[in-house]
Design goal:
Rossmann fold; 5-stranded parallel beta sheet; globular; two-stranded antiparallel sheet; 199 residues
Length: 199
């Protein structure tokens, strides 16, 4: 099986990158393959511009960079998003990737009558969030529910895809990182076990 691991952090020396590499190592240890989509180092432009608006209105085909990302997703058996939590949400780099890549006509079909067809049925995803705050802070403020509504429902379910796991690494600016790295490796190693259970 093959996973596309999308990294939403600008710094290759970040814990976010290290966790993504551990997920990939875990997948390899279990006999699976993966591709790392390092959006920042690859120079992906997250700005939703006039060309993207034309795609949304069905007036133009997607730009080449968007088509390339869609092809990477199509080649994968599952999608793994690994990202820092900025302002209680996805960072702009990753949010812009979603806005541009999950386009009308590919991820969903928005008809003139207002109906929507979900085009990513059968697609699965895993979320890996990296946070500086402690778990208690996130629990007190209902962060898990906010992420479920915003990302799992608002993005993936809207397109027909299913989020199979959501992992939050908290206190990452103060806690030792070795345990988080081991957990990320284990997550990768068992990723397709989760997929099999959901099937």
């Amino acid at each position: 099986m093959h996973a596309l691991i999308v990294i939403g952090h600008h710094d290759p020396a970040s814990l976010t990158h290290a966790l993504a590499h551990q997920v990939a190592a875990g997948l390899a240890a279990a006999g699976h393959t993966s591709e790392l989509a390092d959006l920042a180092s690859e120079g992906f432009d997250p700005r939703f511009g006039l060309a993207d608006h034309a795609v949304h209105r069905r007036l133009a085909a997607p730009p080449a960079d968007v088509l390339a990302e869609q092809a990477r997703i199509d080649r994968a058996d599952t999608l793994v998003l690994v990202y820092p939590i900025y302002w209680w949400s996805l960072p702009a780099l990753l949010k812009g990737w979603v806005e541009r890549v999950f386009s009308n006509g590919w991820a969903f079909d928005y008809a003139d009558d207002g109906s929507t067809t979900k085009r990513l049925r059968g697609m699965t995803a895993h979320l890996v969030g990296v946070a500086g705050a402690d778990a208690g802070t996130f629990e007190r403020h209902g962060y898990a529910e906010a992420m479920r509504v915003q990302i799992e429902h608002g993005i993936f379910d809207y397109c027909g895809a299913q989020v199979l796991s959501s992992t939050l690494f908290s206190e990452t600016e103060s806690a030792p990182q070795a345990a988080a790295l081991r957990q990320a490796h284990a997550l990768g190693q068992g990723l397709f076990d989760t997929e099999a259970v959901s099937a």
